[in-house]
Design brief:
The protein has 759 residues and is of the alpha+beta class. The chain is built from 23 helices and 20 strands. It has 4 domains: 1-57 and 245-374, no CATH class; 62-214, no CATH class; 381-445 and 622-759, no CATH class; 451-618, no CATH class. A hairpin with a 2-residue loop joins strand 2 and strand 3 (100-108). The longest helix has 44 residues, at 239-282.
Length: 759
Amino acid sequence: MSTVRASARWIRADLRARRGQALLTVLAVAGIVTALITSATLLEDGTNPWRALFAQTRGAHVWIHTKEAPDVAALSRLPGVEQVAGPYRTAPVTLALGGKKSPVALRGTAAEPPRVAAPLVREGRWLRPDDTGGVVVERSFAEALSLRIGEPFTVTALNGASHPLIVVGLADSADQGFYPEWTPGLAWTLPETLTRIEPAPGRSESVTGLRLADGEETLPAVHGAVTLLDEQIQRMSTWREVRASMELDNRLLGLLLALFGTAGLVAAALAIANATGGRVLTQTRDIATLKSLGYTRGQVFALLVAEHGALGLLGIVLGLVCGRLVTTFALDGLPILPLSPVPLLAITGGTAAVVLAAVALPAWRGGRTPPIPSAPAAPPRGHLSRLARLALLVRLPPALVLGTRDAFTRRTPAVLSIVGLAVPMMMITIGLGCWATLDDFLRHPERVGQAAALTVHPGRLPAEDAARIAGADPDVLAVYPGSEVSALEPEQTRSVLARALGTSGEPYPFSVVEGRMFSARGEAVAGQGLLDLLGAEIGDRVRMTVGGTPLIVHIVGRVVEPDHDGEVLSLGMDSLAAKDAVPPQFYGLVLKEGADPAAVRARLLTASGEALEVRRTVNPAERLVVIRLVIVALTVVLALLALANLLTASALGLRDHALDLAVLKAMGLTPRQVAATLVTGTGLLVVLGVVAGTVAGASVVAGLIDLQGHTSGVGAGIGRTPSAPVLATAAGTVIGAALLVALIPARRAARAQVPVTAR
């Protein structure tokens, strides 16, 4: 018991003597754990809100859109089908609100919520039998249009008739993704209300959901439905498509956090190992005294692990608290789920293992300290390093030559210091690359398929008049007719988007990163997600059903496609059947350089008497602005790790050359020259670490971003490396700040009296 009390007093005294270094260790580990928990929360199972929504609503795994209501009994007998939702009659209508028109899929459903795929009401209530004009609106669609409970609005059917409706509830659904990534918007109403709005059966479709016993095995049910319904199927979707549409933004953010967190964990292990090793070297006399008082090698090992490991474990606890606060409050606006116990325990246990492993090796070396230490420790190597010899050859000032010699007095701590600085700098450089990529998206939207700043829908005007008005504006450079139709892939198990823009002779300026632009009928370009889905390559010919018409397309190029996970086929209007191409659904407007989209939109609305519907194209980079805040926050954490390594290197330099300071002063070096010697020794390690980290980060950042683009369906070719001035500024700033930090202890040591310094 007395040994335990003595150990506790010794640990307490040592921590008090180095409060700043101990605090840095705790904060660094806490920051890394916070980043790991946040990233795991965003990435868990790759689902985000879909998992909870699907479980709460007992969602359907497969949704089938057909021309007429299918045979429910036959569908329920398909292999793996557990329950059938619907069929529900659905009609397309247009919602007019505040001068803006939005397409809506109005679905007829009973007043009693269904047992399968029941919408989850978040505000208001579900439909009642007397709600003849009431609707429940999908929540993300309602938020985009600022719809509130009790708010009236008007919908227009395909026959041109207008009908007033009122919002009675807002609900979440796992049937489709969030608006506007998944369009049209979804709303539920009573069947009699739907019949009143759209009485013609030919202008509606039937939607049926299949809930499977094993959601992972969707192919048997899908193939069975295709065989059973044959040509009745217009399009199909599975739970994987819905999940993917809900996870896109958070997945990108989460992967960035995971990358920073994992690399930061490596840097933290290096920092803790370096700091522990430095303290063990500094405490050689104290450890020898403990040995002479009867401490065994195992007791000394346990003492050092307890002291230095406790700092890491305290950082883990603090990180768990901060991670919970971040995911609960800071990310409250994002549709995320709490982290489940298994990944939480994995992060906690893994970080604790890394911390203890980083502490164990120097603690083991400390346990081997002999009871009677040798004379005051001197640098272990007396010969000059190659850098020191080079410094002599180029006739640098004596202070710089001596500092260069001191940098590699202890090789292992020097290498740990360099790597410990290089890893954070590499991650900071990668963060700058992500920032540069976002800036490039915003400055050059045409590189991500956003050449058209505005999209014009004819509205109440004929398509020809809409094109004439748009082309007459002085800031409009080009007008491209467009249509979007659903396409079935060759096996007819998945629906993808077929987007026609421009013609084969005058194609829309897509951003083609592989192959070439289409130039003839039947040619098309595709996103990476579609190529992966089809297992196709550039140059292949693929048979697809586009808008219900069989079409063999020749894929001649790959484009950067941020929409629908890259599962988009882009072709000319003349490649579509006449029923899909004439008249065009919309027009894409490419503006002159420097033109203001808002001003052009206002002029077009005025020229058309508010008859046109003019929408601004939303740049995908605008949805990822939060990444900038993440980069700044994680840069602070990485800076703490680098600072901890720097302080360790400075402390080791002062310890190893305490006697040298007395000799240098006796030789006539001024305090300023002595300080320059110490700063040079530390600064050389800083320069090597920062330069190595900057070069490594700059060489891999574009490839990492392109790899993420490839796996997410957007496609490679989007990554950007930070410019040379940015890299030079970042490296110079880090080096300058590090030298200023190293100067503080160096000046104190240089100004100390010779006897004190020697002691």
